[in-house]
Amino acid sequence: MVFAIVGSVSVLIVVVIWLTFFSNSEKKLTSKLFELEKSGNFSEAIHVVRRLIDAHPKSAGYNLRLAQLYEKNKNLAMALSVFKEMYDQGCVSREVTRLSIIENILRLTLKATNYEEAFRVAGEVLRINPGNAAALTTLGRIYGSQGDLQSSQEAFDLALRSDYKSADAHFYYALALLDLGDLRKAISELEAAYKCNPADRNIVYFLGCAYFQSGQKDKAAELLSKIHIQQFDSLPSNIVKIGILKQNMPKMDIELLKSQMKSGGGSSPKVSSIEGLMTASGEQLHEAVLKIISRLDCSVREELKDGSMDPNAEKNFICVSRTSSKPLIVTFLKANSDLGMIPVTSFLQHMEDQSLKNGILVTTARLSAAAGQELQKSTGITVIDRTRLGRYLH
After folding, report:
1. Which of these, 96, 114, 129, 328, could form a disulfide with 358 (CB 3.0-4.6 Å)?
2. What share of the chain is helix, strand, coil (3-state, %, to 5)?
3. What are the residues facing 314 on neighbouring strands?
């Protein structure tokens, strides 16, 4: 008995020593990583962060750092590869969400000027978050580059409705307006872009040129001096209707891209009734639930995956309310019976896991008014049941 106790204590001491050594080793590596990154030695920093990933292969934070270092080291292909691997393998955390990963894939794909791929990625982003301003701005740019200025304008309108502080949405919308010949409105959008990001040289340049062309030469001179342009003779004589968005983009089959966007890559019919919801599955059901969430004035931040649940019967999302900007859980629950009370165990577990106090339960079941009120009072869950659900499908 004594020997057993001594042996157990010895093992425990070895474990404690090993954990202490490993913890100290990780601290040294993270400190070294910080110093290397600060000094601009990105190649060596990449080696260090890879050692950290070897110890923590599922760490979303370390993998994100690796992708960022590759980008800083001007290796876009490797940065994209890391982000795509994270996305495919579900390497996420509360801070590094699935949505943020694919937004980075979209940003780097645009940076690499792979515009057809960017269109496809934008569609994937919009399936996760239908009101995503970056994805809508990408569509606006690509539509405009192919001469489809109406679709371009519609995409920019939606982007700015979703995020009015998006400098990119204002800026590229302004370029589309210049291509349409609307100098006055283009100046208004460029001014909004400048307010959002006054350090962007492209915004400063185009706003200065627009001021000059509209006869506001004092404003033009003041603004252009910020980017060291003192003489007006280097400015274009006309920036209206010269196809700014068409420049530097290849010719694409825009009609094919648009049809793929509308169908979500398939040919599933749209769900427009509760009966349709009951029989829908897969991508068709997913799109219907996203539409309901959008009409609840919420935008999806992340879909929560739960291997034990039937994805055709229950879907859970972390969302943000557009009216209050507060995060909440939205759950869709497919049920074909009238229920006095709906089982919400997994819903409450998700709320607890995400440290959230409010949520919306969307269900095809019918819930009594008294039960719905009691549920909201006791759990913070608002219920959209069968009696109210139809209005969110049309």
Report:
1. 328
2. 65, 10, 30
3. 333
Question: What is the dihedral sign for C-alpha 283, 285, 291, 297?
Answer: negative
CA dihedral sign of residues 386, 388, 393, 394? positive
Structural domains in the chain, CATH included, are: 26-246 (1.25.40.10), 274-392 (3.40.1350)
Model pTM score: 0.61
Could you tell me if 334 and 278 are in contact, meaning their C-beta atoms sit under 8 angstroms apart?
A: yes
pLDDT in tens, 24-78: 677 887 887 778 878 888 888 888 888 888 888 888 998 999 999 999 999 888 8
- What angle do the packed helices 254-263 and 133-145 form, to 10 degrees? 150
**Beta pairing partners, 384:** 362
> In whole angstroms, what is the distance from residue 150 CA to residue 253 CA?
16
Residue 328: phi and psi, rounded to 5, are -160, 165
- Strand 366-367 to strand 338-339: parallel, antiparallel, or no bridges (unpaired)? parallel
